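Private note to self, pasted from the team thread so I don't lose it. Backbone tokens:
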């Protein structure tokens, strides 16, 4: 059995003269939660719709579960999908929807257990029209997972959910992954990607501009060390140290930006000069910082 559940090679999608996705290549490993990040219009949803067989690419190759052009009926049995915008008939009850979707699969999950895990057990007899936006979103997730798919595609997983419901949904997805399901997650919540994803691909203008673990991408955005020297220190003495990219001294407080060996090299320099740092603060970059930097660099290069 292949370790790669999804393989995308030079995917391109055009709408007339507009290129929505251009030369995207990536692979998704079995048993991981793989995130796709990007601003609106970056090509995220178009890409996952091609993976799910809902949209045909203009060119390129996509293999799902080891097969190129997997039969759509087989694909539906193996892939669960929760789209960003989906709906059900207004008069359909929650329990009816779960039972209907469960009937499509040979070995579905227990509908009541899944509703309980997603906080919908008290809504099982409610009609779809009576559900709140967050409840509709959770029902959509339940329907994507009811068939015990090998691959679950979740587009904007927790949009409309309150913080408590969002955290509970994250636990459900982590549990699903622990049971061997591979998850492809499209999100604009950086905290969600950091919490859930083993790896993420950052999309911008239809291309992948970053691909790594959230931690590695965040580390690439750099660090900041700030302190107030107990005795006078010329900030210029710290420039040129390993890992240092910029030094400033607002209001007598020294701020050092950089990455890699930044902390060790600055502290070693202070010790050698007999300078004691007071009110020391170290700020690690986040995935959000990395996302902003990467997209800004791409925009600057394009202009």
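Design output:
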């Amino acid at each position: 059995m292949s370790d790669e559940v999804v393989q995308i090679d030079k995917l391109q999608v055009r709408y007339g003269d507009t290129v929505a996705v251009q030369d995207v290549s990536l692979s998704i490993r079995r048993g991981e939660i793989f995130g796709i990040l990007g601003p609106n219009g970056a090509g995220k949803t178009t890409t996952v719709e091609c993976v799910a067989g809902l949209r045909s690419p203009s060119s390129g190759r996509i293999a799902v579960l080891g097969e190129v052009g997997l039969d759509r009926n087989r694909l539906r049995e193996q892939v669960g999908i929760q789209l960003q915008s989906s709906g059900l008939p207004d008069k359909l009850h929650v329990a009816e929807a779960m039972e209907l979707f469960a009937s499509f699969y040979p070995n579905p999950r227990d509908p009541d257990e899944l509703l309980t895990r997603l906080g919908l057990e008290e809504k099982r007899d409610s009609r779809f029209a009576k559900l709140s936006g967050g409840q509709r979103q959770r029902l959509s997730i339940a329907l994507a997972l009811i068939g015990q798919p090998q691959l679950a595609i979740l587009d904007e997983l927790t949009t409309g959910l309150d913080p408590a419901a969002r955290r509970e949904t994250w636990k459900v997805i982590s549990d699903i992954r622990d049971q061997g399901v591979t998850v492809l997650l499209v999100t604009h919540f950086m905290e969600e990607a950091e919490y859930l994803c083993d790896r993420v691909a950052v999309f911008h203008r239809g291309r992948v501009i970053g691909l790594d673990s959230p931690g590695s991408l965040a580390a690439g955005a750099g660090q900041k060390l700030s302190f107030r020297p107990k005795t006078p220190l010329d900030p210029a003495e710290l420039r040129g140290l390993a890992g240092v990219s910029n030094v400033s001294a607002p209001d007598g407080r020294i701020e050092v930006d950089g990455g890699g060996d930044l902390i060790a090299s600055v502290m070693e320099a202070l010790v050698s000069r007999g300078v004691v740092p007071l009110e020391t603060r170290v700020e690690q970059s986040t995935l959000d910082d990395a996302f902003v930097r990467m997209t800004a660099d791409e925009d600057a290069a394009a202009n």
